[in-house]
Amino acid sequence: MELNNSVLNSERVMLLEDKKALNIMEFTVTVHLFCSVSSLSCANLALRKMAEDNFQFDFEVINTVRGNFYTYDCLKYVPSESEAICLTTDLRRLLERGDFNLTKWVSNCLKLIELLPKPDRAS
Length: 123
Fold this sequence. Notes:
Number of helices: 4
Helix content: 25-40%
Shape: globular
Strand order of the largest sheet: 1-2
Low-confidence stretches: none
Radius of gyration: 16 Å
Strand content: 5-15%
Structural class: alpha+beta
Largest sheet: 2 strands, antiparallel
Distance between the termini: 37 Å
């Protein structure tokens, strides 16, 4: 299924061409991955749209949705425990608005993990 030009910027794939030189090649996906409307790219597009629709949230939370989701995972670094807890709380609140629920949370911040519901933690 071909993608509409208005969503092409949200459908990008980056490949590491040369590990030693850290050359990264960027490609724009013009067709749904796996030729399915239910592909991961659709879920990612829905996440981005939901973030744009909820612009009243903190910029860092919106930016996390825009730039830190990779296939099934959200990968994010913040420099302090308090920022990690705040970002996680706000991110979960934002995603609830779109009926998304992140699970299998992993963090080196034990306090953050303890604040999460047990079913949402990685085992």
